[in-house]
C-alpha cells in the first residue's frame, strides 16, 4: 500500500513539474551522438533538465550563453530519445543549429516563457510533430520569421487561437512547409513583412480573406510557386487593404491563383515584377483586375510581369495603365477567342491535367477545349484518388491513358478513337469500360476491377488484353473478342467466364484462362499458339491437336477433365506440361504412345500417377471403364519388377498395353500369385482376368 502511494505521489509530482511552464521538447539523438546544442535569447541564464525516454538517465544544467552562440549539452546517452525541460524564467527565444533541428521529434509543451521572437524556431525541423495542447505566450513576440519553414505536418494544435497582435514580421513563416491549418483568426494588423510567407507551400489553401493587412509594406513572393496538386491556393482575398504595400514582386508567380484583384489599392506599389506570371488568372479575372487598377492613381514606371495571362475586355484598361503611368506590362497576350473549357469535376484529375504543360499550354487554371483536342500524347494519372474521369472525352486525339490504382467507377471512351493504350488496373470500383469506338486500341491492361463485361469487337487492332482477376476481384462474365484478328496475347485468368470465343483470333500466341468456369473451348483456329493455360476450369475435354506450335500446356487442378488431346504432330516440342490434380483424367492422347523419347522430366512436367499416354485414348478409355466397374487387387502399384495378384479361384489373366494389344498371358491359382514384369518397358498397362476383373498398373 505504501509503495502504491509512493508511485502515485511520484506520478503526480511529475505532472506538477511539467505544469510549472517549462518548454518541453524531445530530441532523438542519432547513433554515435552524445551531445546537442541550443541557442537562446534571454534576459539572464536559463536552467534546464533532461531525461531519457523511457526514463532511465537524467541530468540538468544552465544555459549561460544567452544572446548569440550555442549552448552545448554533452555526455548524453548515445543515440537516446531525450526530453528537454527548459525553464521559462528569463527565456525569450530558443532555436538550434540546422544540423540538430532535423532530430526534433515532438513539442510537448510551449510553457509560459515570454517569447519575444520565434525566428527560425522550427525551420528545417523536418521530423517534428507538435502535440502541445497549450499555446505560446506571444504577447511580446514581434517576429515569426521562418518559424515553420519546411515543417512536415499540415496542422499545429490550437494555432488559430494564438495571439499574434504584436508580430510585425511573418517573412517565410510557412515557406516550403506542408502547413494547411485554419489561421483565419490571426490578428496580423501590425505585420509589415509578409514576403515569402507561403512560398513553395504545396498544401495551404485556407480562407484568410478577413485578415487586416493594412500595415503591410511588402508581399514579395508571398504565394510564389505555390502551385499545388491537387489543391492550389485560390482563396478570395480581393477585400484586402493593400494600400501601404510597395513590393508585390513575384507575389502570385505560378500560384494557380484565379481571383479578381481589381479592388486592390495599388497606389503605392513600386515593384510588381513577375507578380502575376503563371498565376493561372483567367481572362475574365485578369480583365477585371486591369480595369480596376486603371481607375487608380498609380506610381509611374512600374514593371508588371503577367506571362501566360490573356486579356480581352481589359485591353483598353491595359493601354490606359501603360499610356498614363508608363507601366511596363510584359508576357500577357490579347485573346478574345471563344473560351470553351473542358468540364473536369474531379479536382484530382483536373490538377493532373493542369500540371501537365503539354496539355495546359497556356498555364491557366482551366483546360480549354482546344488544348484538349490538340493533345496527342499519353495521360498518366495513376494513384491520385480519382473517382470521375469526366473530361477525358475532350481529348479526341489522345493515344495513351494510364489511370491505374484510382477510385474510378466507369470509363466512357467513345470519343477517344485515337486511343492505342489503355491501362486501368487496380480500380476496384470500376464496373464499366466502353471501348465501342476505340478502333485503334492496341494494348488493354485492366486487371483487378469490378468490370463484368468487356467488348473488343470494335477494336480490330487490339494485340494484347490483360484483364485477370483475383481474390475479391473476379467479376468478368462476358468477353467479346470477335473481329480481333491481331490479338496475340490474352490473360483473363481467375474470372467467371463460362465461354470464350477465340475463332477470330487466328494470331493468338499466348492464352491464360486459368480459374474460369469454362465448360468448353475451341482452339482449332488458333494454330500459332505457343502457350495455353487452362488450369482450374470446368472443362471436360481439351483438344489442342491443331496447335502444332505449342510449347507450354497446363490443365492442372481440373477435376472434371476426362479427355486431353495433345497429338498435334509436334508433341515432343512441349517444354512445360502440367496436368496434376485431374482425378478423372485417365489418358492423354499424344503423337507416340512411347513417351521415353520426349524427355518429359523435371518440375515443368507434372501428372497424376494414374494417368496414361496413348496415341489411341479411345481404346484405353474403354479398358479403364471396365476397370472401374470390377477392379482386381494387385500390389505394389507402381512396381519395378514384380506384381502380387490375389484371386479366389483359378483364373487366366492377360496384360494389355495402351494400344489394347495383349503382351502377356498366364494362369493364376487361388491365393496370392507373384508375376515377373521386370522385362516390360516403363509405362501404363492393364490386367484383365477371364472372369472380367481388371486393374491398371504402372511399370517404372
* Sheet with most strands: 11 strands, parallel
- The share of residues in extended strands comes to 15-25%
CATH topology category name of one domain: Leucine-rich repeat, LRR (right-handed beta-alpha superhelix)
Helix vs. strand class: mainly beta
| N- and C-termini, Cα separation | 80 Å
How many DSSP H or I helices? Answer: 6
Rg for CA atoms: 40 Å
CATH architecture of one domain: Alpha-Beta Horseshoe
Output the CATH homologous superfamily of one domain.
Ribonuclease Inhibitor
The general outline is elongated
Reading off the top of the CATH hierarchy, the class of one domain is best stated as Alpha Beta
- Tell me the helix content: under 10%
Detail the poorly predicted runs: 1-17, 623-629
Q: Give me the count of strands.
A: 39
Mean pLDDT: 90
The strand line-up of the biggest sheet is: 14-15-17-19-21-23-24-25-27-29-31
Amino acid at each position: 500500500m505504501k509503495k502504491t502511494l509512493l508511485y502515485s505521489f511520484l506520478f503526480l509530482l511529475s505532472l506538477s513539474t511539467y505544469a510549472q511552464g517549462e518548454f518541453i521538447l524531445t530530441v532523438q539523438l542519432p547513433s554515435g551522438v552524445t551531445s546537442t546544442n541550443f541557442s537562446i535569447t534571454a534576459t539572464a541564464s536559463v536552467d534546464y533538465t533532461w531525461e531519457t525516454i523511457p526514463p532511465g538517465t537524467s541530468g540538468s544544467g544552465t544555459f549561460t550563453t544567452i544572446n548569440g552562440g550555442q549552448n552545448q549539452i554533452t555526455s548524453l546517452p548515445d543515440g537516446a530519445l531525450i526530453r528537454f525541460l527548459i525553464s521559462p524564467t528569463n527565456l525569450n527565444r530558443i532555436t538550434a543549429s540546422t544540423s540538430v533541428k532535423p532530430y526534433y521529434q515532438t513539442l510537448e509543451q510551449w510553457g509560459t516563457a515570454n517569447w519575444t521572437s520565434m525566428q527560425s524556431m522550427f525551420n528545417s525541423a523536418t521530423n517534428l510533430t507538435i502535440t502541445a495542447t497549450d499555446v505560446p505566450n506571444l504577447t511580446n513576440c514581434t517576429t515569426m520569421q521562418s518559424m515553420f519553414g519546411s515543417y512536415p505536418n499540415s496542422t499545429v494544435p490550437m494555432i488559430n487561437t494564438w495571439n499574434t497582435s504584436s508580430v510585425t514580421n511573418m517573412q517565410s513563416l510557412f515557406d516550403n512547409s506542408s502547413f494547411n491549418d485554419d489561421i483565419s483568426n490571426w490578428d496580423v494588423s501590425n505585420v509589415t513583412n509578409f514576403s515569402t510567407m507561403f512560398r513553395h507551400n504545396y498544401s495551404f489553401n485556407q480562407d484568410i480573406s478577413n485578415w487586416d493587412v493594412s500595415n503591410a509594406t511588402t508581399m514579395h513572393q508571398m504565394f510564389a510557386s505555390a502551385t499545388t496538386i491537387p489543391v492550389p491556393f485560390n482563396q478570395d482575398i480581393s477585400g484586402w487593404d493593400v494600400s501601404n504595400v510597395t513590393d508585390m514582386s513575384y507575389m502570385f508567380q505560378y500560384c494557380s491563383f484565379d481571383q479578381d484583384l481589381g479592388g486592390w489599392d495599388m497606389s503605392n506599389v513600386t515593384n510588381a515584377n513577375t507578380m502575376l506570371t503563371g498565376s493561372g488568372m483567367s481572362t475574365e479575372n485578369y480583365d477585371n483586375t486591369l480595369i480596376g487598377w486603371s481607375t487608380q492613381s498609380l506610381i509611374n514606371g512600374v514593371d508588371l510581369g503577367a506571362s501566360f495571362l490573356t486579356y480581352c475586355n481589359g485591353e483598353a484598361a491595359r493601354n490606359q495603365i501603360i499610356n498614363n503611368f508608363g507601366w511596363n506590362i510584359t508576357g500577357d497576350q490579347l485573346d478574345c477567342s471563344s473560351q470553351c473549357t473542358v468540364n473536369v469535376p474531379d479536382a484530382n484529375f483536373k490538377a493532373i491535367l493542369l500540371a501537365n504543360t503539354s496539355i495546359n499550354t497556356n498555364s491557366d487554371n482551366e483546360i480549354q477545349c482546344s488544348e484538349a483536342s490538340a493533345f496527342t500524347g499519353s495521360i498518366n494519372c495513376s494513384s491520385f484518388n480519382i473517382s470521375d474521369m469526366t473530361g477525358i472525352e475532350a481529348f479526341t486525339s489522345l493515344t495513351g491513358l494510364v489511370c491505374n490504382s484510382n477510385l474510378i467507377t466507369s470509363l466512357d471512351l467513345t470519343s477517344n478513337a485515337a486511343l492505342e493504350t489503355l491501362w486501368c488496373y487496380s480500380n476496384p470500383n470500376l464496373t464499366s469500360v466502353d471501348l465501342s469506338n476505340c478502333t485503334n486500341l492496341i494494348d488493354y491492361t485492366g486487371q483487378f476491377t469490378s468490370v463484368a463485361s468487356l467488348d473488343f469487337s470494335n477494336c480490330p487492332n487490339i494485340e494484347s488484353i490483360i484483364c485477370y482477376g483475383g481474390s475479391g476481384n473476379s467479376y468478368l462474365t462476358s468477353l467479346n473478342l470477335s473481329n480481333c484478328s491481331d490479338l496475340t496475347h490474352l490473360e483473363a485468368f481467375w474470372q467467371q467466364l463460362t465461354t470464350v470465343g477465340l475463332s477470330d483470333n487466328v494470331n493468338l500466341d499466348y492464352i491464360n484462362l486459368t480459374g474460369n468456369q469454362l465448360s468448353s473451348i475451341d482452339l482449332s483456329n488458333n494454330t500459332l499458339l505457343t502457350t495455353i493455360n487452362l488450369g482450374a476450369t470446368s472443362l471436360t475435354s481439351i483438344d489442342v491437336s491443331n496447335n502444332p506450335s505449342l510449347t507450354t500446356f497446363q490443365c492442372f487442378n481440373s477435376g472434371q477433365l476426362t479427355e486431353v488431346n495433345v497429338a498435334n504432330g509436334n508433341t515432343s516440342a512441349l517444354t512445360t506440361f502440367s496436368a496434376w490434380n485431374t482425378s478423372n483424367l485417365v489418358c492423354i492422347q499424344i503423337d507416340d504412345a512411347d513417351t521415353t523419347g520426349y524427355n518429359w522430366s523435371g518440375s515443368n512436367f507434372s501428372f497424376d500417377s494414374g494417368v496414361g499416354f496413348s496415341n489411341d485414348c479411345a481404346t484405353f478409355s474403354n479398358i479403364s471403364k471396365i476397370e472401374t466397374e470390377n477392379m482386381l487387387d494387385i500390389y505394389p502399384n507402381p512396381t519395378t519388377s514384380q506384381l502380387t495378384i490375389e484371386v479366389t479361384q483359378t483364373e487366366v489373366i492377360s496384360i494389355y498395353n495402351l494400344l489394347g494389344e495383349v503382351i502377356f498371358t498366364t494362369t493364376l491359382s487361388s491365393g496370392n500369385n507373384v508375376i515377373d514384369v521386370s522385362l516390360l518397358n516403363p509405362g501404363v498397362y492393364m490386367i484383365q482376368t477371364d472372369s472380367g476383373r481388371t486393374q491398371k498398373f504402372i511399370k517404372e
